[in-house]
Structure formats: C-alpha cells, structure tokens
Amino acid sequence: MTDFVATTDIIDAHLHLWDLGAGGYGWLGPQHGELNRSFSAGEAHSELTGAGVSGAIVVQADDTAADTDFMLATAQHNTWIAGVVGWVPLDDQQRAGEELDRLCAEPKFRGIRHLVHNDPRPDFLALPAVRTSLKEAARRGLAFDVPDAWPRHLGAAVELARALPGLTVVLDHLGKPPLGSGGSEAGGADLESWRQQFRALAELPNTVAKVSGLQLPGVPQTPEALHKLWEEAVESFGPDRLMFGGDWPVSTLAAPYAETAGVLFALADELSVTERQDFLTGTARRVYGLPAP
Known about the structure:
alpha/beta
C-alpha cells in the first residue's frame, strides 16, 4: 500500500449490507455459497479499516423498501457510512414521488438504484413512468446507479443519460465487461460491443463509472489482468469521473476485501496525486453530494 493510500481519506463507493432475517433478497440462495447469509455493519467496518478505507457508500441489494430502510437505519448508527443508494418504485410515478418525499428527509439518502439485470422488462429504463420518476430524483440532487448493464441495459443507459441531462447516471462495475479467461483480449465481438456502448456513455458529461465488481470468471484479481480494462476506463471517463468500489461482500467470492482494494490502489498509483484523489474520494463526494472530510 502506498503512502498516498495510507494517508488519504478514501471512500468506497460501492459496498453492500443485507439482513436476511428481514426477508426479501429473492435473488440470493444456496447457489451463492458464502454470500447466503447476513452481512453486518460491524463486519464491513472491520474489512474497510483493515484495508485503510475510511468510509463507504452503501448500495441497495434488493428492490424493496425494507432493504432501503435497513440501510438507512444502519447508517444512523455508523458514521463511516457516508451515504445510502436505495430503491424506489420508479415505474409507479405516484408511489415513487411519495417514497422520494419520505426518503429525502434522511440526510444520508444520496441515490437510487434498481436491479435492472433482474428485471424481466428489457425496456425498463425507457418506460415513461421511470423517466418521469428519475427526472424528479435528479431535481432532488440524487444520482442513479445502473448495475450489471451489459448486455441488456448499457445502450439503454446511454439513451437515458442523453434524454435526462440533469440526471447523474452512475455505471456500476464498468457495465460488467464480458471478459473471459484470456483477460481483456477475450470476448471478441461481445467485448467490442461493450466497448462501443461504454465509450458512448462516457461521451455524455452527466455520466460517471465505478471501477468495481470486476471479479470476472477466469480473470485473476491482479493489476496486470485488469490493466487494459483500467486503461479503457481512464481514457474514456477520466479519473475525475471514476470511483473506487470494492463491491464487498460480493467481491469476496474472488478474493478478500483488502486484496481487491489493493489491486485498485495499485492501478491508481499510475495517476497523478490529484487524479488519485478524485478516483479514491473526490468523485464519490461530488456525485453523491457528501460533505468534505
């Protein structure tokens, strides 16, 4: 770990907590192995501290109000939680407005996400009610996270960002590029399709991306294995529109949190001091409207 990382305030822009005792999380089951349990704030904080990370944005893991309320309640008692990205029923304009009224009273509610990759509707991001709800979210200063966008929703995210220039669209996990065991040269036509849509999104000024969730099948968790993907992200978005995200606990399926973070810190060492500060904390503070440290 570099001296810069050891002495700089670092915000992990993508971390999860979930409580299976409260129900929900229908996507999660025994097939997910060690993820099929609750993950607490105390456990998360220990992992962050061990990696030299000072705080995090906690991101929804279920399209339910219960999951969002759980995160907000947890955030009230944990100062290291800098913000919460929750869920509202975007496709129900009236209910979405009511939920936004309620949730925006919570100072740590800073963004919205919908599990588009689990939604059976391929046109979800283009639905008129969703667009209207997101326009209202933008008016309130909230960002919108798009998870696992490729292959169904990366092009749709481009259309959304273009249609709503006042909305900050956050691409989680770099859109989940289709890498294989051969690293960033694998994927063929699929990888090229991802790249074209990724670059089209980056051309829009109201978009940012998280370098997170890159625990991809057959791809080692090393700076060398992810370097070409990192270069693509930096060239397309620039460091001031990229955010560091550990994707804990999902990332633990590939490597311990400190190891995952260490890979991204090593890649960030190629940047200037100002650029590293943007990537490790500045972009997250700006996008999610967090106070200065």
